[in-house]
Amino acid sequence: MQNAVERQRRLGAFWHGVAFRLVAAISAALALALAVAAYAVWRQNALMSELDKLADQGLQRVLLIWEANENANDAARKMLILVTAPPEARAGAREESEAANRRLDSALTLLGASLGPDPDHPRLQTVLDARRRYAAAFQSLADDVRQGDLDAARDRLVLATDFELSMLLSALETLDRSEQHELELAMGALRGRQRDDLFVYAAMLVVVLLAGGGLAVWIWRSAARPLRAAAVTAQAFAQGDYSQRLASTRQDEIGDLTRALDLLADEVSRREARLIDLVETDALTGLAERDRFLRLASAVLSGAASGVAIVVVDLDRLGTINQLLGFEGGDAAVQMVATHLRTVVGPAAPIGRIGGGRFALTLEIRGPATPAADLMAWAEELQQRLEQRSIWREQAVDLHLTVGVAAVQGESSDAALLLKRAERALQQAQQQSRPAAVWSQALEDVRPSYLSLLSDLQRACEQGQIVAFLQPRIDVRTGAVVGAEALVRWRHPIRGWLPPSEFVPFAESAGRIGLITGEMLRQGIDAARRLRDAGYAVQVAVNLSAHDLRDPTLAKRIADHLADAGLSPQLLQLEVTESSLVDAGDEPIRRLRDLRALGVDLAIDDFGTGQTAISQLHRWPMQTVKIDRQFVRGVDGLPPSRRALLEAIVQLAKSMGMETTAEGVETSGEMRVVQQAGCSSAQGWLIARAMAVDEFEAWLRQNPAAAATRLSDATAA
Predict the structure, then answer these.
(1) How far apart are CA 234 and CA 37, in angstroms?
(2) Quick check: 314 and 358 in contact, CB under 8 A?
(3) For 211-258, what is the HEC assignment?
(4) Highest mean pLDDT range out of 150-164, 251-265, 417-431?
(5) Residues pairing with 362 in the sheet
(6) 160 φ/ψ angles, rounded to the nearest 5 degrees
(7) Going by C-beta distance under 8 Å and a sequence separation of 6 or more, which residues neighbour residue 568?
(8) Which residue, 48, 287, 321, 420, has fewest beta-carbon neighbours within 10 Å?
(9) Closest Cα partner for 226 from 42, 38, 33?
(10) Which residues fall within 8 angstroms of residue 424, CB to CB, at 6 or more apart?
(11) What is the reported pLDDT for 16?
(12) Which residues of 579-588 are buried (b: 16+ CB within 10 A; e: fewer)?
């Protein structure tokens, strides 16, 4: 009996000892788990704070570099005004130029302070060295202007000051790229550390929880299930899933552990959501980027499979606004459109910025099966409501918009497909110069018809279906007809007369534009010869594409055409669009010099739309600048600053020995301003529309002003 009691006492002591050790082990394991969770929260807070600080510093540097770039561009505009300003305005222009340079210096000083205490920062030193060279060149230019030597000032502007300013802008761009690259590397390293830490925390928690559960499973069965749930949740956190919550009400160590994990999930998911929001939100407008917009639109479409449309709105001529008002003005225009979109469509409709000046929105339309005509009327009404005139820094800015619509018509469709269709409709509207267009299957069906047009193109050239129409160009001083531009038309045997917009862009993209150019050169030279034989000295202009400038046989073919026609090269003008020359390599420039060597006149077409650098204009072998119609349209009713811009372009061309032609003159008021600006010649509907060669010759005979165009006996001989 005594031995049994002793055995019972020893067994009780043993179990008490085992229980004590197990309780101690479990307590230690839970305490360690809580410590890991607390450390994880602290570590994640520290990493996110460091990431936020790094992002703020990077954003500040990008903004400072952008401000310096804008001030440099402003200084360039002020320099151009300085060298073209009349004597009475030079003092004010010089003060504005110097003020622009001071703002540039101030921006560079702030930029240097932002980049840190390193005085030998190589890329910053490059910027500062470029700034010192530009300051010296500008000072020399200002001295020339102060001394009244405007010719020397213009030469210095082209040969030195503009070059140094370009080098400064290039150095700023290099600094911007390098700073952004370093920022991305640093942020990537921090995110890598964060991911590594998460995996480490998860692994530590799994080990601790499994160890504690293994010790406690045969004593406290109730502890195993919550520990397993905690382990699963920790693994989900490590994989980026923060939706799971343990939500334990226990007041022991296990409860503390689960609450710590919930806190960790809340903090990490909140900060990750903030980073995703920054990535998927457009910084300029605060609107959704393309991917986020598609998700929002998908949510709308899933709730209403019909009666919904995706609308794409494009800000036309954003590049022109950037050129006239600077990129700050372009950004302001984009923000104006974004604000107006929110006002027109309301806060509930998803809106996104999917490109430079392009926006997308999801709207409900009237009825689940709206007819195409009603959809078109609805789209045009929306375009009229969106289009507006705004004021930016006391400057009126006309915001012209084009709208493309794709609607769900009783069928399910995903957002990406609808967005693609809306963009296709927008492209169609812009090609046809219409305010809006609605997608239909016909837009897709028309593509094979364009392919058939391209396959018919060679036959059209051989059968005389490609026809040159002539639009006259007059001397604005005398009214004499001095030239004509050859405009292409296609007399299709089935579709009738086709305008260039119906086939030229597709021929160009398919590499078949050379067929059209060859036919237009032949007809243009023949027209000039025919007019010469009729006694009229009319210089005929033919357009060349960027594709044509890559043809090494171009100059020889034109020389052969001229020789076969017995035509003087002075009666042929070749027009090249500014956009095809900007950033062109040396080969197109060599082609132009070969053409100039033939004696033909070379003209820059659509000048002002390609953001030409002055140094580029100087190196092109051109004799004529054709000012784009956007600088002429309605200029008589615009503020004096717009007229001054037209006059500055004319004076710049004159300083380089070039003639100027104003395109698209449609009213007598526009002609009056063009004459006052000093343009050499003009063309447009005010003078005459484009005509077939027979009609053009008859028009010359009936036009009294064409008498000055007639060849003298000596010239005819």
Answers:
(1) 10
(2) yes
(3) HHHHHHCCCCHHHHHHHHHHHHHHHHHHCCCCCCCCCCCCCCHHHHHH
(4) 417-431
(5) 310
(6) -130, -60
(7) 562, 599
(8) 420
(9) 33
(10) 404, 406, 439, 443, 444
(11) 47
(12) bbbeebeeeb
- Judged by phi (left if over 0) then psi (alpha if -120 to 50, else beta), residue 197 lies in alpha
**CA gap 33, 629 in Å, rounded:** 74
CA 633 – CA 94 distance, rounded (Å):
30
Model pLDDT for residues 350-369, shown as the tens digit of each residue: 999 998 889 999 887 755 45
Q: What does each C-alpha distance from 388 to 333, 400, 431 come to in angstroms?
A: 11, 7, 22
Pairs from 369-376 (Cβ < 8 Å, separation ≥ 24)? 369/306, 369/409, 369/410, 370/307, 370/407, 370/409, 372/438, 372/440, 375/309, 375/405, 375/407, 375/438, 376/436, 376/437, 376/438
Q: How far apart are CA 313 and CA 383, in angstroms?
A: 8
pLDDT tops 50 at residue 207: yes
Tokens 């709308």 identify what position?
Answer: 300
Residues in the chain: 717
The amino acid at residue 468 is A
Residue 487, pLDDT score: 93
| Tokens representing residue 576 in the block | 């090249």
How many angstroms separate the Cα of 423 from the Cα of each of 284, 313, 407, 427, 446? 22, 9, 12, 6, 16
First to last CA, the chain: 150
Distance CA 362, CA 642 (A): 37
Tens digit of pLDDT for each residue in 100-142?
778 877 877 777 777 766 555 677 778 777 878 877 877 777 7
Cα 486 to the chain's mean position, in Å? 32
Task: Supply 508's token pair.
Answer: 């160009």
Biggest alpha carbon–alpha carbon distance for the chain? 152
Give yes or no for a contact between 471 and 691, defined as CB atoms under 8 angstroms apart. yes
What does the alpha-carbon distance between residue 556 and residue 400 come to, in Å, rounded to a whole number? 44
Read off the pLDDT of each residue in 685-692 and give the average, rounded to a whole number: 92
Looking at residue 478, its amino acid is: T
The tokens for 580 are 């095809």
Higher pLDDT, 296 or 364: 296
Averaging pLDDT over each range in 581-585, 684-688, 699-703, which range is the top one? 684-688
Residue 357 backbone dihedrals phi, psi, to 5 degrees? -120, 25
Residues 317 and 403: beta-carbon distance below 8 Å: no
Strands (E) across 247-344 are located at: 308-315
d(Cα 468, Cα 500) in Å, to the nearest integer?
A: 11
Report yes or no: 544 and 576 within 8 Å, Cβ to Cβ: yes
Query: DSSP letters of 614-647?
Result: HHHHHHS--SEEEE-GGGTTTGGGS-HHHHHHHH
Mean pLDDT, the chain, integer: 77
Helix or strand or coil: residue 405? strand
Alpha-carbon gap, residue 618 to 598, rounded angstroms: 20
Task: Report how far residue 659's alpha carbon sits from residue 663's, in angstroms, rounded to the nearest whole number.
Answer: 13
One-letter amino acid identity for 398?
D
Identify which has the larger pLDDT, 554 or 16.
554
- 26 with 223: CB under 8 angstroms? yes
